[in-house]
Design goal:
By secondary structure, the chain is an alpha/beta fold. It has 25 helices and 22 strands. The strands form 6 sheets. It has a 7-stranded mixed beta sheet. The radius of gyration is 27 Å and the shape is globular.
Length: 685
C-alpha cells in the first residue's frame, strides 16, 4: 500500500505556535487549515544543519534589510575590508555596491557555523569580498539547544556598539574559541575578550550584563523564521537560499551562478515509488456563525478574524498580551479587520474557563465596552482566579468592581447560568469545524492554530488584501513537499545502514542516578538510551526491540535500562514530550507516559497543540492534573531535558536512538537479535 503524505499547509512565518487543547478525542482539523510551523519561543524548531544539504525552494525574503541603508561604516584601507552597520542594525563586510549580497543567519555556538567561518568564509573574504564581488550581512539565529548562543550574539553586538570592526573581531574570537565560553558563565569569558580587544570595558560589561540587544536578536530570529530559516548556517545569496556549512568550492560556484543571474536552487528530491504526493488544492474557507458577543472593528471591514479562545489557557493569554495590541492598532482600528471572539473552554484541563466565559458575557449586559474590559481583566488576572474552583466567581465579581463595573450583577449573572447555552453553542461550533485547541483563528474562513505573532496575521491578511492567498498556500505546499521528501530520504538512509561506530577505547561514563530507569540497580549490564519521543526510529525501537529486552533481560535482573532525552531540532514537539514524561515521573508514571507518547506518536507529532495531548494522556493515567499541568506549562524540566542533550553530545551521540551499553556507544534502531547477541557476550565476560 502506498504511503500517502498528509500535508499541512504551512504559512511562511514560523515563530511561537503552542496551543492548549482538549483531552478527549475530537474531530481532525478541516482542510481549510493554514497551519504554522511550530516552534516555541525558544526556537526549538530550529535545526543545526550539517554540511552541504542544498536548498530546495526559493526564499521568501523580506528585502527591507537588503536595501542596505548604511548607518555607519569604515572604508577599506591598507588591505582592510570595508565594514559597517546598516540602518537596520546588522553588521556587514565588503563593498556596499557589490553585485552579490550574502546574508548569513548564524549561531555562534553552532559547530557547523564555526567550521564555515574557519574553512570557507576565511577564503571567501580574501577572494569575493576583498575583490568587491560580494558583501556579507550577518544575522543572529541562536538555536535553542545552544544555550550560550544568544548571550554570545549579544556580546558580539555589544562589541559592535564601539565600532563595526569590533563586531567582526568579536565574531572571529567567538567562533575560534567556542569551547572556552560554552559553559555556565559565558559572560566572564566575553568580558575577557573585550579586554583583549581593548574595548571600553565598563560600557561593554554593562551591555553584556543587561542583555542589551536581546530584542534585536529575537527580531533576527523571527525574520529568519519568516524567510524559512530552520537551521544554521543558512545563507541568502541575492535572496536565493543556500543551506549548511558549504565547502568553499561549492560556495564559489554558488556565488558565480548568482552573479550570472542563474538559480542555485537544487531540483526537488525525487518522489519514491511507494510515496504518493497529493496534488495542490486551494482549500475552501469555512463558514462561521456570527459571534454572539460584542465585536471589535467596523462591521463592514473586508476581512474578519474569528478567535476561539479559553480564558484559562496560557497561550490565549500570550495572544492577548503580545499580539492583540498590534492587531488592534494596525488592523482593527484602521478598518482593515473586524474581530470576533468565541468561547472554547477546555473543561478537562481548564475547569474555570467556562465560568470565566460566562462572566465576560455577563459584563456585556452593562455595555459593549464592558465586555472587552472584562475580557482583558480576566486574562490580565488569570492567575488570580485560575484553579480557584467555585470561588472563582467571587473573584470575577471583584475584578469587575475594580474596573468600574457592577460586581454584584456579574455574580448574580454567573450564578444564574443564563449564558451557559451560548458558551456551549460556541463550543459545539468549534468542534464541528474541527477546532482542536486554543487559541484558534479563522481569517476569512482560513484556519490558523496557536498563539501566533503579529507577523503571521499580517502575512495572511496582506495576502488576502492583495489577492495573493493562493500563492501563499502554493508556496507553503511546495516547501512542505520538499521538506517531507528530504526527511524521508534521510530516514531511509539511516534505516538502510544502522551501525555501531567505533567507540572509544575507554568506557563512556554517564551519570544515571537522576534519570528514570527500570530494572535492578545492581544488574551486571546497564543500557542508557538517548531517545527522542518524536523520532520514528525511536518509536520502532520502542515497539519492536524494547519489549523483548525488558522481558528477557530487565525483568530477569540482568539489565538496568536508563532513559535519557535527546530531542532533535527537527522534531519541534520532542522537547515538550520529554518534559511531559518527566512531569509524569514526578507522580511515579514515567514508564506509562513513555509508552503512551510512543504508542500515539502519530497523534501529536507535528501538531502545534501537542502539549494538550500530553495533558490528556496524564488525565488517562489518573495523574493529579493541577500538578502535572503546572509542571508542563512552567517548563520545570526544560533545562534538565537540554542537559541530557548536551551530555549526549559530549559523549558522541549525534542521532537517535543511541545507546551506551556498559560504557560503549551503539547507534541506531538495531534489531533485537543484535542486542541479544551483544548482551549475551557481555554476560559471558
Amino acid at each position: 500500500m502506498k504511503t500517502r503524505l498528509l500535508l499541512l499547509l504551512l504559512a511562511l512565518v514560523a515563530t511561537a505556535a503552542i496551543a492548549c487543547g482538549p483531552t478527549s478525542p475530537i474531530p481532525s482539523a478541516t482542510e481549510t487549515e493554514l497551519e504554522v510551523a511550530a516552534s516555541n519561543t525558544d526556537s526549538s524548531l530550529a535545526e543545526e544543519v550539517a554540511p552541504a544539504p542544498e536548498a530546495t525552494n526559493e526564499g521568501n525574503a523580506d528585502t527591507a534589510d537588503t536595501q542596505l541603508v548604511v548607518a555607519e561604516s569604515t572604508a577599506a584601507s591598507n588591505g582592510q575590508l570595508a565594514m559597517g552597520r546598516l540602518d537596520s542594525g546588522h553588521y556587514y563586510m565588503g563593498d556596499i555596491n557589490a553585485p552579490v549580497i550574502i546574508e548569513e543567519f548564524s549561531d555562534f555556538q553552532c559547530p557547523f557555523c564555526a567550521r564555515f567561518n574557519a574553512d570557507t568564509f576565511s577564503i571567501i573574504k580574501q577572494e569575493a569580498i576583498a575583490n568587491g564581488e560580494a558583501m556579507v550581512v550577518f544575522y543572529d539565529f541562536p538555536l535553542s539547544f545552544h544555550p550560550q548562543g544568544l548571550p554570545a550574539a549579544n556580546a558580539a553586538r555589544c562589541a559592535g556598539d564601539q565600532g563595526a570592526e569590533y563586531f567582526w573581531a568579536m565574531h572571529d574570537l567567538l567562533f575560534a574559541q567556542t569551547a572556552q565560553w560554552s559553559n555556565d558563565q559565558p559572560n566572564d569569558v566575553f568580558k575577557s575578550y573585550a579586554a583583549e580587544l581593548q574595548l571600553d570595558q565598563a560600557a561593554f560589561d554593562d551591555c553584556v550584563d543587561t542583555n542589551a540587544h536581546l530584542e534585536t536578536i529575537q527580531a533576527d530570529m523571527a525574520l529568519g523564521q519568516q524567510r524559512g530559516v530552520s537551521g544554521t548556517p543558512t545563507f541568502f545569496l541575492n535572496e536565493q537560499p543556500l543551506v549548511g556549512a558549504v565547502p568553499v568550492a561549492d560556495f564559489r560556484q554558488a556565488l558565480a551562478k548568482v552573479a550570472a543571474g542563474e538559480s542555485i536552487a537544487a531540483p526537488p528530491p525525487a518522489v519514491p515509488d511507494d510515496v504518493e504526493i497529493p496534488p495542490f488544492e486551494m482549500p475552501e474557507p469555512a463558514v462561521l456563525a456570527v459571534s454572539t458577543v460584542p465585536t471589535l472593528g467596523q462591521a463592514d471591514a473586508p476581512i474578519t478574524i474569528v478567535e476561539f479562545s479559553d480564558y484559562q489557557c496560557p497561550f490565549c493569554n500570550r495572544h492577548v498580551s503580545e499580539t492583540m495590541p498590534t492587531l488592534m492598532a494596525e488592523m482593527i482600528e484602521t478598518g482593515r479587520v473586524r474581530y470576533e471572539f468565541k468561547d472554547f473552554p477546555l473543561d478537562n484541563i481548564h475547569p474555570e474557563a467556562r465560568s470565566a466565559a460566562e462572566a465576560a458575557r455577563c459584563a456585556a449586559e452593562q455595555s459593549e465596552t464592558s465586555y472587552w474590559a472584562m475580557h482583558d481583566a480576566l486574562f490580565t488576572n488569570q492567575s488570580a482566579w485560575s484553579g480557584q474552583g467555585a470561588n472563582a466567581s467571587t473573584i470575577y465579581a471583584q475584578l469587575a468592581t475594580e474596573i468600574g463595573l457592577d460586581g454584584a450583577q456579574i455574580s448574580e449573572c454567573v450564578t444564574s447560568g443564563r449564558y451557559a447555552s451560548a458558551v456551549q453553542a460556541d463550543v459545539d461550533e468549534g468542534f464541528a469545524l474541527g477546532v482542536s485547541g486554543t487559541p484558534a483563528f479563522y481569517i476569512n474562513g482560513y484556519f490558523i492554530s496557536g498563539a501566533q505573532p503579529y507577523e503571521l496575521f499580517d502575512t495572511v491578511v496582506s495576502a488576502i488584501e492583495t489577492d495573493e492567498l493562493e500563492s501563499l498556500f502554493r508556496r507553503a505546499y511546495d516547501s512542505q513537499v520538499a521538506a517531507y521528501l528530504q526527511q524521508l530520504q534521510q530516514q531511509q538512509a539511516q534505516q538502510q545502514a544502522p551501525q555501531a561506530p567505533a567507540g572509544p577505547t575507554a568506557p563512556i561514563e554517564v551519570p544515571t542516578n537522576e534519570s528514570p530507569s527500570v530494572g535492578d540497580p545492581n544488574a551486571p549490564i546497564t543500557i542508557v538510551e538517548y531517545t527522542d519521543f518524536q523520532c520514528p526510529f525511536c518509536g520502532r525501537h520502542f515497539a519492536e526491540t524494547f519489549p523483548l529486552i525488558q522481558e528477557n533481560y530487565v525483568d530477569k535482573g540482568l539489565v538496568r535500562y536508563v532513559f535519557k532525552d535527546f530531542p532533535l531540532s527537527n522534531h519541534p514537539q520532542a522537547p515538550k514530550a520529554a518534559e511531559a514524561a518527566r512531569c509524569a515521573h514526578e507522580q511515579g508514571q514515567f514508564l506509562a507516559m513513555h509508552h503512551i507518547l510512543f504508542e500515539r506518536q502519530g497523534d501529536w507529532s507535528g501538531r502545534n497543540d501537542a502539549p494538550t495531548f500530553f495533558s490528556g494522556y496524564a488525565a488517562e493515567l489518573g495523574l493529579d492534573m493541577a500538578t502535572f499541568d503546572e509542571c508542563l506549562n512552567s517548563g520545570q524540566y526544560a533545562e534538565a531535558v537540554q542537559a541530557d542533550l548536551q551530555e549526549g553530545l559530549s559523549v558522541g551521540v549525534t542521532g537517535t536512538p543511541s545507546f551506551v551499553v556498559n560504557g560503549q556507544l551503539v547507534v541506531g534502531a538495531l534489531p533485537y537479535a543484535t542486542f541479544d547477541q551483544a548482551l549475551q557476550s557481555l554476560l559471558e565476560e
